[in-house]
Write a structure and sequence with these properties.
- About 65% of the residues lie in helices and about 0% in strands.
- With about 60 residues, it is mostly helical.
Length: about 60
């Protein structure tokens, strides 16, 4: 059995996420793609990336 590196596995996860978005006819921003690549490279955490995406793309609404 061929063993893949941890980096290759992380790269594959990012590729799969982007493919899933394309299947749903969604296009991530360049900031999201770069953020995911930074996560794979170990320069960013997924929690920080998620927080940045929410700040940039989600509009908070007050209820009541």
């Amino acid at each position: 059995m061929k063993k893949i590196s941890r980096q290759a596995a992380h790269d594959k996860v990012v590729e799969n996420i982007l493919a899933s978005l394309r299947m749903e006819q969604l296009t991530p921003s360049a900031a999201v793609v770069n953020g995911m690549k930074a996560c794979v490279a170990g320069k960013e955490t997924t929690d920080n990336l998620l927080a940045a995406v929410i700040r940039q793309h989600v509009t908070l609404r007050r209820v009541g």
